[in-house]
Design brief:
This protein is an alpha/beta fold. Helices cover 36% and strands 17% of the residues. It has a single domain, classed as Rossmann fold (3-Layer(aba) Sandwich), CATH 3.40.50. It has a six-stranded mixed beta sheet, with helices on both faces. β2, α2 and β3 form a beta-alpha-beta unit. The longest helix has 18 residues. It is globular. The two termini are 22 Å apart.
Length: 198
């Protein structure tokens, strides 16, 4: 069994928006909340992080302080939002409220213009989880990533359909705990260790 903790980045500069591939750094508050989210008794063998600054900056500093090996994984980056990149909900509601509503009601069926699909996000995110569980069997890993990838992984762990992913609450600087293994036939089995099911 491999134990995997998922840490979402804290508040980023520029405020709430469909940040996606944009590379904004953390605010001072974002840094503070990420440090506060770490359990005092947490023991990890390795950090695997999104390469985007709001994750990687914290990951590198945690690696330095705790002398932990770190790797950056492109497949842990946030969903790319296409034409919605950098836009706030208020911006989008003013431009095309119907499109925003369709996305929130069923993100599996509706993709923002030019964006990565939710199925593509799921494919790369689950592929990464399977790879690290296989490579680091019986280890304790900290994955520092974004709301989109974490929701996809929690859907898998909780047995929820992917189209319900946006109903799972993943606050900035929140920690979610999983465990999993890959069977002899290559099937990944993963479950949540969170005390409260999202």
């Amino acid at each position: 069994m491999t134990f995997v903790d998922l840490l979402r980045h804290g508040e980023a500069e520029g405020g709430p928006r469909y940040r996606g591939s944009s590379d904004d750094p953390l605010t001072a508050e974002g840094w503070a909340r990420m440090w506060a989210a770490l359990p005092e008794d947490a023991q990890w063998d390795r950090i695997v992080s999104s390469p985007l600054a709001r994750c990687a900056g914290f990951a590198r500093e945690l690696s330095r302080r705790r002398s932990l090996p770190i790797e950056l994984n492109q497949d842990l980056r946030e969903m790319h939002f296409g034409a919605w990149e950098g836009r706030t909900v208020a911006d989008l509601a003013a431009i095309d409220a119907e499109a925003l509503t369709r996305f929130w009601q069923d993100p599996l069926k509706y993709t923002p213009p030019g964006a990565e699909t939710l199925a593509q996000l799921q494919s790369r995110t689950l592929g990464t989880l399977k790879a690290v569980i296989t490579q680091y069997r019986h280890r304790r890993l900290l994955l520092i990533t974004h709301g989109g990838p974490i929701r996809v992984l929690l859907c898998q762990a909780l047995g929820k359909p992917l189209e319900k992913s946006l109903q799972i609450e993943v606050q900035p600087a929140s920690l979610h705990r999983l465990c999993g293994h890959v069977t002899a036939d290559g099937t990944m089995q993963v479950r949540s260790r969170d005390p409260v099911t999202p």
